[in-house]
Amino acid sequence: MSQAFDVVVIGAGPGGYIAAIRAAQLGFKVACIDEWKNAAGGPAPGGTCTNVGCIPSKALLQSSEHFEHANHHFADHGISTGKVTMDVAKMVARKDGVVKQNNDGILYLLKKNKVTFFHGRGSFVAAAEGGYQIKVAGAAEEVISGKQVIVATGSNARALPGAEFDEVNVLSNDGALRVGAVPKKLGVIGSGVIGLEIGSVWRRLGAEVVVLEAMPAFLPSADEGVAKEALKVFTKQGLKIELGVKISEIKNGKKGVSVAYTNAKGEAQELAVDKLIVSIGRVANTIGLNPEAVGLQLDERGAIMVDADCRTNLPGVWAVGDVVRGPMLAHKAEEEGVAVAERIAGQHGHVNFNTIPYVIYTSPEIAWVGKTEQQLKAEGVVYKAGQFPFLANGRARALGDTTGFVKIVADATSDEILGVHIIGPQASELIAEAVMAMEFKASAEDIARICHAHPSLSESTKEAALAVDKRTLNF
Questions:
Q1: End-to-end CA distance of the chain
Q2: Is 175 one of the annotated binding-site residues?
Q3: Residue 369, annotated ligand binder?
Q4: Which pTM does this prediction carry?
Q5: Binding of FAD: at which residues (predicted)?
Q6: Do the strands 365-370 and 358-360 form a parallel or antiparallel pair, or are they unpaired?
Q7: Which of 259, 318, 351, 418 has the CA that lies 20 to 30 A from 92?
């Protein structure tokens, strides 16, 4: 007899495992299915984020940043190191260790919350009385049933036509995190988050990195001022970024990869690299889900169609995270997972898309929440803006990292904060205050009147708020 559950979650990435835990906390009998395997063939929950995305990339970014500091910045602090070398194999092994710690932590959390974990691929079999039958194809095949089903199967890297990933020379985010030696020359197609972060890792370790971007503008979704500063800084660091390119052909050979393209001027160019990272976005993952068996509707992009509350067209079936509309961000998936679990329990789960923060973990870091100046102009919103440079911040000077600024845009009449944009040290941490302020409909004056610790980077946020009314104290 198959096991029956109140809630079955397919996928144990950030959206899935969090949904499972929250549902269990609310008193439901919960199962969570995930097929990701570690090197030994055991379960590796956490999805793309933990296994080949957020977590391992941050581990490599940290290692490469230490290496760069030792080579270029320690002397400023009076620290003499002699010749500094990088053991890439050890760096990658550390990254793998960090990933495993997170995998094991998720398994522990599921067990702690009495979630039954199934290691295998989950797929729909059929609608059943009072719910759905779900097949688990793992070491052994079995069918379980759930009254409610939450699909959280994530996304896959988008490949360029004619340049399929071999994860040896043509790399997705997965292969880019497993490169065993520093390439002499690295090509990156796409100047989004993955391209910039992984490109930065290998640039710091000595690779010549060339980034090819189809869009005519750099980081078009970010604030224009932030994007302009970022392009200037990354170029100074050594990243070669070409905008407005059109890829003509990619040839993958034994000695590397050649990319034929036309530049923004329409001139034919060819780039020869040892490795090529393709980071042109991601596509919803419904491979093997068998949505046809129950009539689950997908859109033209292959994503699962949901309403504002993450309900699909089927009663009792929900979907969250990268497999549905909206930004493909781990924290967005987590919030949707919690909200769906609470909706199943009859509560009023809530996700505010207007206050989801965006972060790029380069150096300097880039983070923002809310509207950009260009969006507000396009919408005809009358606003005022204040900006404060880290160059004038005491803590940034002590850190030796004064690149960038904090910008706050607020409604010209009500002073309500409409957006906050940061490029600089620890922007990923500083943005949390902005998210909190916007959730509570704070004004720029509210942040300006709050006491911030001195010396701290967060004082730059306070000063930017003061700058909205042209009354900064330290610049």
A1: 72
A2: no
A3: no
A4: 0.96
A5: 58, 122, 153-155, 322, 328-331
A6: antiparallel
A7: 259
